[in-house]
Amino acid sequence: MRMLLIHSDYLEYEVKDRALKNPEPISEEQKKGRLDEVLAVFMSVEKADETNPDEVVEKAVIEIKDVASQVKADRIFVYPFAHLSSELAKPDVALKVLQRIEERLRQEGFEVKRAPFGYYKAFRLSCKGHPLAELSRTIVPSGETVS
Ligand SMILES: Nc1ncnc2c1ncn2[C@@H]1O[C@H](CO)[C@@H](NC(=O)[C@@H](N)CO)[C@H]1O
Questions:
Q1: Is the predicted pLDDT of residue 146 greater than 80, yes or no?
Q2: Interface predicted TM-score (ipTM) of this complex, two decimals
Q3: What whole-number distance in Å separates Cα of residue 11 and Cα of residue 120?
Q4: Is 94 touching ligand 1 by the criterion CB < 6 Å?
Q5: Is the CB of 19 within 6 Å of ligand 1?
């Protein structure tokens, strides 16, 4: 899994069109979303993650919690983003991983939103620009190597 973490004044998105034949079903309300004072986490779930999705979920939550505590963010935006890797996991595995990360972060006490999966979306982001505002992390299940 590849993650790009941006500590932001806000992140807002608007669904434009479907990018998969069967995108995640969403309500009218989910077509737009915004969070202020947020740690935006853009995530590409990768093929290697398919060998142990549960382990990747836990490792991702640990990394996100670590960055959130460093930048003092208690809101997280989970953003499916298929542009951080050339070895993407299948959509059904990727969606499950992202849904589980959302759920686990909520259990850890964060306010969490997740952008809809399988769509083209317009988004606006205001990066805070401090030294820890732009970070990336790579997570692989044990036994896999980073390519
Ligand atoms: N392995 C994967 N990891 C993360 N997201 C993935 C994925 N496979 C599919 N998606 C989702 O389907 C849209 C089309 O690839 C993706 N859409 C996007 O990435 C938008 N930024 C528009 O390009 C994403 O929602």
A1: no
A2: 0.98
A3: 16
A4: yes
A5: yes
